[in-house]
Amino acid sequence: MTMQPLIFDETHGLDPLDFELPRELEAAEPPEARGLDRDEVRLMVSRPGDARVAHARFRDIGDFLDAGDVLVINTSGTMNAAMKAVRETGEALELHLSTRLPAGLWVVEIRRPTGGATEPFRRARAGETLRLPAGAAARLLTPYKGDREEGSRLWVADLDLPEPLDGYLGRYGFPIRYRYVHEEWPLEYYQTVYATQKGSAEMPSAGRAFTPELITRLVAKGVQFAPLLLHTGVASLEEDEPPYEEFYRVPPETARLVNAARAAGKRVVAVGTTAVRALETVTGEDGNTYPGEGWTGLFITPERGIRSVDAMLTGLHESRSTHLAMLEALADRGRLEDAYEEALREGYLWHEFGDLHLIL
User: Fold this and answer.
1) What is the tens place of the pLDDT at every residue in 89-99?
2) Could you tell me the maximum CA-CA distance found in the chain, to the nearest angstrom?
3) Residues 199, 177: Cα–Cα separation, whole Å
4) How confident is the model at residue 173 (pLDDT cuts 50, 70, 90)?
5) Are 337 and 324 contacting, i.e. CB atoms less than 8 angstroms apart?
6) What are the chain's domains?
7) Number of helices and strands (H, E) in the chain?
8) How far is residue 295 from each of residues 198, 247, 280, measured CA to CA in Å?
């Protein structure tokens, strides 16, 4: 395996982790297609003050948790957020729903099929209408966040559908997938077992490996689960592009569990970067977490720090991803570098169908 040294390069005020990811370490299919149960993916565990990294199977995560620890999970369900689209010129495209906005509007990403995958399409124009299946249409209103129209990747759009959204997507939509996933997989492969409300463009994938049996064992051990909601947008951010606004909801009981665990000296473990983003939005400088809901544009960096959680379960993120800035806010830079070098050396798999990293 070819591996270049991990370096940090100053970009937009950040120092994003930069490394070369070999193609063979991109998980191209669900673990079930590789003969594994969901909870048999690998788990890498890194601890503060310890340069050594532990290796396990995810089903053994309970060995690293204590009674009273709280796992904060994102119960947002994944939509069939991709649809075939056609320009007025007849050019075939894909429309990816990203984020539901007020007044029935959506943030959408337009992509162009290419070689069995897709790539961002940057030649759309305001006022253009894309034809969707069954007589539906998407009208592009304006580039998202005031971007220049020329070359814009994300758009605010108005959808004209012949039936309610959930039913329409169930009939004509399909899960968003990127070049490293070579085959189409049904939506159930993109759902966590505890999803309660669909709304995410892409799966909050850090929780994918949980099974009902594993959750039962953890609860029996005294580990608590605290649900919240954050509907994730498309993850195909440009290099060094900061995340955008997403809808979140933190219930009163979750805020209570988090505060009680902290007061008792127990760990608050976020399952995924989405859980961290939602919790940080409603956690004050005094460390107290409050219930709330709304839209969060919070961008978590090492300079800002993290107040709401002590640990995180997360997947392995792409080189220079802004998610890595969040991870560095929790783990020191040297520990993060060591962990990623170990993951590359040991052949861990990346992306939503890959392996997991528990940062304690």
Assistant:
1) 999 999 999 99
2) 63
3) 16
4) very high
5) no
6) 7-78+185-359 (3.40.1780.10), 82-172 (2.40.10)
7) 6, 20
8) 17, 4, 12
